[in-house]
Design goal:
With 257 residues, this protein is α/β, with parallel strands linked by helices. The protein has 2 domains: 213 residues, HUPs (Rossmann fold, 3-Layer(aba) Sandwich); 31 residues, no CATH class. A 9-stranded mixed β-sheet has the order 11-10-9-12-8-1-6-7-13, with helices on both faces. Helix 2 packs across helix 5.
């Protein structure tokens, strides 16, 4: 089975993001595999172990993304591909990503493509469905269980607190939700083996693409951090007095009444 995982390098969720003049200062920031993509990597490895084949992780970015690819290889993926756009693209969006991936997959015989449900930095959830549309492949989003029997696929799809059971056939694209599995930590032997596993580097030229072919369809107007939360207030005194004070605060300060 030919299994592929779409992987993205994102800010560490526990790292403090600094914005200056509308730009994110990433020189001192820590980067990780997008957490939802970790579920995709883990599921890909599980399905390969159950059905055979190989797992290839694919990312679009700069050379720094090699670290996250090596982490996925250390988890157990077989091969990695870095599509380096550092010298070709100044900026991009979900259209850009999907268009590049479409060119990469056009001559691949993929049985299963997995991706994270969303990326924590932009949270659009568009790349998987966009790629499926361009490749004319069926897709299911937010999966929390995946069973494959031959070419038959059974999926549990998370639908806001409930589960929808769906049957489909390979090939297919799925996006992975929390609850699908528990991503493993890379072991020391896995880390050592990852250094020897193949990591292919491509550029847009290798995919017969020009910058104009993948030009972003959207533009970022402004970046800013959310306002800091105000300190809470504890109301004291008798219950009737607390209620009166609460109503007064909601009217005069919060202005929600």
């Amino acid at each position: 089975m030919n299994i592929y995982v779409l992987l993205k390098r994102t800010f560490d969720t526990e790292d403090k993001i600094v914005i200056e003049d509308g730009e994110i200062l990433d020189d001192e920031a820590e980067f990780i595999i997008n957490p939802y993509d970790e579920y995709a990597v883990e599921e890909a490895i599980n399905q390969r172990d159950a059905h055979g084949g190989e797992v290839t992780v694919v990312t679009i970015g700069e050379e720094d993304s090699e670290k996250q690819l090596r982490t996925a290889l250390a988890m157990g993926a077989d091969k990695a591909v870095l599509i380096d756009t550092e010298d070709d693209l100044e900026d991009g969006d979900q259209y850009t990503t999907a268009k590049i991936l479409e060119a990469y997959f056009k001559d691949k015989e993929a049985d299963l493509i997995l991706a994270g449900n969303v990326a924590i930095d932009e949270a659009s959830g568009q790349v998987g469905p966009r790629l499926a549309e361009s490749l004319d492949m069926p897709f299911i989003t937010t999966i929390v269980d995946l069973e494959i029997d031959g070419s038959d696929v059974k999926v549990d799809k998370d639908i806001e607190g409930d589960v929808e059971k769906i049957e489909a056939t390979l090939p297919i694209i799925v996006t992975c939700q929390q609850g699908l599995n528990e991503p493993r930590y890379p072991s020391l032997p896995g880390i050592m083996q990852a250094k020897k596993k193949p990591l292919e580097e491509l550029e847009l030229d290798d995919l017969d693409l020009d910058e104009e072919d993948v030009e972003a369809k959207t533009e970022t107007i402004e970046r800013f951090l959310p306002a800091e939360k105000a300190a809470g207030r504890i109301l004291e005194g008798e219950i009737d007095d607390q209620v009166k004070e609460l109503v007064s605060v909601l009217k005069t300060e919060a202005k929600v009444l």
